[in-house]
């Protein structure tokens, strides 16, 4: 599979706080990279020690293996006072990076995979919501999403109907906005930054910007890690391993509208690294 | 409940793969399908079956085979039958 248009996108490659002088080796879109401190500043090189562009944002080091076609996407909430910014860490998953993002967008799995945390039976219905591509920023947005959750966040006490918005702002990055239990009228932000190591292996770097003055940082991290570890076992057993852009054996339903919009957006932009183009 | 709807697809539809793909996908969903008009930019077909499965057909059409691009799917209900 050609890397194609995905070569010119931004990707997370590590926590800013985790970069060392000695550095470490990693992969990006199947190519070797190295992340290290150069004069105290994080730097990234590609094959042949070619310097790659670097951005430091949202607690992470970002790079682009090609020529960036646009700046790194903006998450304005990252600069709002009163939010706690949480670098969750890394979770390696044996799945397509596109599958990891698609799973993040899937509300319908909450009661079955995150039972009694993000969902519970019999509250399994996904009510109708709106999905579209915002042409001015070329992002997928799902809005007016509502779902009942027994424990929507670490700070939630008891079940609440949670409002959501989903945003796909890069081929392997998605941001979820959800009702903030302690701050009605504000959104908690949970982002999934995915580093595509290969077409079937990725490092997932969740990041959060929350209103929560009570929970310890350790508890916040453990809560999000628990959610993602539950997802990992599902992700690593999905077939086909690559994300199909032709539905083929899968039958998407109206509850999958965000996933359908994401796949259409990938197809339209030629973001096909990690995708299966023709149904098996 | 069984309903019959006219589906009108618009976009870049000039692929020989599209018609067989639609017939196959409708078959997987257990829908009755009749293709009526197909040009490189527009396809009209009649589909009958359960409403949720017609919704699933719409989702499938939005993706379609890789070498086509569907801009829009318009649906017009033309019949409705309870039972069966």
Automatic annotation (TrEMBL), chain A:
Keywords: Oxidoreductase. InterPro entries: Cholesterol_7-desaturase, VanA_C_cat. One of its GO terms (molecular function) is oxidoreductase activity. Residues 93-268 form the Vanillate O-demethylase oxygenase-like C-terminal catalytic domain. Pfam families: VanA_C (PF19112). This is (2Fe-2S)-binding protein. It comes from Salipiger pallidus.
From TrEMBL, chain B:
SUPFAM superfamilies: Acylphosphatase/BLUF domain-like. It comes from the Bacteria. This is Acylphosphatase. It comes from Salipiger pallidus.
């Amino acid at each position: 599979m050609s890397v194609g248009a995905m070569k010119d996108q931004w990707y997370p490659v590590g926590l800013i706080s985790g970069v060392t002088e000695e550095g470490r080796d990693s992969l990006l879109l199947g190519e070797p990279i190295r992340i290290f401190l150069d004069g105290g500043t994080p730097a990234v090189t590609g094959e042949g020690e070619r310097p790659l562009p670097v951005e430091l944002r949202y607690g992470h080091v970002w790079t682009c293996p090609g020529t960036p076609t646009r700046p790194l996407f903006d998450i304005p909430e990252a600069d709002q006072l009163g939010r706690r910014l949480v670098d969750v860490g890394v979770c390696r998953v044996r799945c397509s990076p596109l599958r990891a993002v698609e799973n993040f967008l899937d509300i319908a799995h909450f009661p079955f995979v995150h039972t009694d945390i993000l969902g519970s039976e019999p509250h399994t219905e996904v009510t109708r919501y709106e999905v579209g591509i915002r042409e001015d920023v070329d992002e997928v947005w799902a809005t007016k999403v509502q779902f009942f959750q027994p424990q929507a966040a670490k700070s939630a006490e008891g079940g609440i109907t949670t409002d959501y918005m989903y945003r796909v702002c890069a081929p392997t990055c998605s941001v979820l906005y959800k009702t903030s239990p302690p701050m009605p009228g504000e959104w908690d932000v949970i982002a999934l930054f995915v580093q595509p190591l290969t077409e079937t292996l990725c490092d997932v770097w969740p990041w959060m910007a929350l209103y929560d003055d009570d929970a310890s940082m350790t508890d916040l991290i453990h809560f999000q890690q628990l959610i993602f570890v539950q997802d990992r076992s599902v992700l690593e057993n999905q077939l086909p391993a690559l994300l199909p852009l032709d539905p083929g054996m899968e039958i998407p339903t109206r509850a999958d509208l965000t996933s359908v919009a994401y796949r259409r957006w990938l197809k339209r932009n030629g973001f096909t690294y990690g995708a299966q183009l023709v149904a098996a | 409940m069984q309903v019959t709807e006219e589906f009108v697809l618009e976009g870049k539809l000039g692929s020989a793969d599209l018609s067989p793909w639609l017939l196959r996908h409708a078959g997987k969903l257990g829908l009755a399908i009749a293709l009526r008009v197909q040009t490189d930019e527009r396809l009209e077909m009649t589909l009958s079956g359960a409403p949720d499965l017609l919704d699933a057909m719409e989702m499938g059409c939005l993706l379609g085979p890789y070498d086509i691009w569907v801009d829009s799917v318009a649906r017009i209900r033309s019949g409705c039958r309870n039972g069966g």
